[in-house]
Amino acid sequence: MEPAANQNLNPENAGLARRAVGPDAGALAEALVQVWRAAYAGIIDAAFLESMNVQQISGRWAHSLGRDTGEKPLVAVVDGEVVGFCQFGVPREESAQGTGELYTLNLLPACWGRGLGTVLLLEATAELRRLGYGTAYLWVAEGNRRAMDLYERHGWHDTGTTREDARFTPALLERRFAIDLT
After folding, report:
1. Helical residues (DSSP H) of 13-110, grouped into ranges
2. Of 127, 2, 113, 39, whose CA–CA distance to 75 is shortest?
3. Predicted model pTM
4. 111-143 in b/e burial notation, b at 16+ Cβ within 10 A?
5. What proportion of the chain, given as a percentage, has pLDDT over 70?
6. What is the per-residue pLDDT across 115-153, written as a single tens digit (0 to 9) for each?
């Protein structure tokens, strides 16, 4: 059953999801910064969130999108503008064979509750299947209830596994969610 929020989507003005291209770098960086500042307020140190630099992140995206390797992120487009993205593919940590990873899903806060997160998540899940993965996992920050609710609505479940991301002070506690893609 599709969430009621999808009723807000207007297919005539929403390009929905497509692969990211080089000129999307700035929009991806802007989305990342806005999302993190909104979604992780009170979860990640405020000084870290304020220090996020759109120009630097845009440069990293431009470099990444310019390479011919790996799966390009999917982007959500509304009225011709990139409003969010998700990345997925080969797991970044040791995992069982046939397991993929959803690395990130970010959607501008102004677009929350409109069904676009669902569009990105369902497209990414379909792409993971297409790539031959039978299962997939993701990590979500403890306290990011909005993200957890989205994943749970679409069949992902909390595995009970946690980890600490020491890149942050204090370390960020993350929960592992997984889904059977078969």
Report:
1. 25-39, 46-51, 54-66
2. 127
3. 0.87
4. bbebbbbbbbbebbbebbeeeebebbbbbbbeb
5. 92
6. 999 999 999 999 999 999 999 999 999 999 999 999 999
